[in-house]
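A note from the maintainers: we've had questions about how concatenated examples are separated. There is no special marker in the raw files; a new sequence line simply starts the next protein. For clarity in this README we add a label.
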Amino acid sequence: MPHVTIYTKDWCPYCTAAKNLLVRKKVAFKEISVDGDPAGQRAMAQRANGRSSVPQIFIGETHVGGCDDLHALEQAGRLDALLAS
C-alpha cells in the first residue's frame, strides 16, 4: 500500500471528513498540519500544483486533491485500487 499524506488545518471540517474516511477504511496516513506554518503551506501548494486549500491528499506520489476528490474516488469505486497500487 502506498504511503498516504494529508495536509490539514485543525479547524477544517473537510480535513476531518477526509481523515474520517481514511480511518473508516483502515488506511494509515501521515498528517501534516500547516496551521500557522506559512512555509509548510507554501510547500504544500507547490507539491499540490498551486492548490492552497486544505486538505490536500496524496497517495504515494499521486495528488488526489481535496476532501471532495477523495470522496468522489470512493463513490466511483476507484479509491481501493489507488490505495492498492
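[label: protein 2]
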Amino acid sequence: MKLYIDPGTGSMLFTILIGVLGAAFYSLRMLFVKLKFKISGGKAKAMDTTIPFAVFSDDKRYFKIFEPVLRELGRRGKEVVYMTASEDDPAFRCDIPGVRAEFIGKGNKAFSKLNFLNATVLLSTTPGLDVYQWKRSKGVKYYVHIPHAASEIVLYRMFGIDYYDAVLLSGDYQEKDIRDLEVMRKLPEKELYKIGIPYMDEMAARLEREGTGAAHPLTVLLAPSWGSSAIFSVYGGRILDVLLKTGYHVIVRPHPQSFASETELIEGLMKKYPPSEKLEWNRDTDNFDVLRRSDILISDFSGVIFDFALIYDKPIIYTDPRFDLGPYDAWWLDRPLWTASALPRLGMQLTEENMEGLGELVDRCLSDPRYSEGRRQVKDETWAYFGEGAARAADYLINKYDELQKVKEEK
C-alpha cells in the first residue's frame, strides 16, 4: 500500500521540518561561536561569511530581469552571488564582473538552501516568500522584490509579496495597491521605491542599437499565457483557423509554462497546425527577435503585452481581461485593475462575437492613430525613470546594504 500525501500537507510537513532544522542549525552555530571565543581567550575574531548581495531566480527566463541590475552592481565593484534553480541559466554564460552564478537545485532543494542562507540583502522576482516552502532565513537581513512585468503587482497568487521587506516599483498605481493590501491584512509597511523597469530599459536600448530589422510580410504574433482563462483554453484551435484565413504570416509563441502544465493541449495544437510557410511556432528563450519582426500582438493577460506595446511601439489585440481573480491578491481590492484601463488604449478587444472578423481587427489596430497616443499615456503611467532603472535599483540596494552594515556595527 503506497502512502499518499496531498500537496498542502506536504508543504506543511516541509515547513515544520525546515523550522526544526533551522532552530537546530542556528543553536549549533551560536554554540560554536561561543566555544571558539572562550577557547581563544576572547581574542578570536568572528569570520563573517555573510553574502553582501544575493539574487534568487527560480527560472532561467527571469535572468533578463536581473541582468541590467547585476551589470550595474558589477560596474560599481560589488560582489553578488546569483542563485538559480535552472542548470542552464544564461547567467552561467554571461561574464559579469563580481557576479558568481550558482545552481542551487530545483524545488524544495533550492528552497532548503535559501532557508538557511546568510546574506545581507537578497533580491528576487519570485512571489510567495514565507507562504509555502520558501521561508525567510534568520541569516538574511533584508528581502527585496522586483516585479517581472510592467503591470499590476497584485496579479501574483494571494499573499505573493506580503513578507518582503521592500518592493521596487515602476508606477504609482502599484504603490496604492500594496498599501491598501497592507491595511486590510494588518501588515507592517514595506519600503516601496520607484525605480522604473530595468529590463525594459535594456530592451529599448538594444532595439535602438540593432534597429527595427529587415523588411518582412505583415506578421501577427499570437502569444497566449497559460491556464483556464488563457487564449488556447478558451478558443482552442479556432483562433488559428481564423488567423490563417487572413493570409498574414502567423507566429505562435505559447507561454513556457504551457509546455509543462498544458502538455496535451499544446502538443495537440502543434500536431493539428504544423509549421508551414504561413505559420511558425516559436520557443526562443530570448524573445527580442520575434517581437521585433511582428507587427501586431494577440494575447490575454500575459506581461508580454506591455513589452510589445511600450518598447516596440506597436498595437495589440487582447482577450477579455475579466478572468477569475479568486486566487490573486487583486481579489481583495474593490476596484478595477489598472490593466483594464490600459488595454483599451493599446488596442482592441477580441471576443467570441468578433472572432470571425479578427482580420479586420488587425487592420484597424494597425491604422488607427489613437493607439499610438494610448501607448504614450500608458508608458507614462507604468514606466517611470525611462533609461534609469538599473542605476536606481543599484543605488537602492547599495544604500540599503550600507544602512544595514551601519546598524550592525553600532550593535
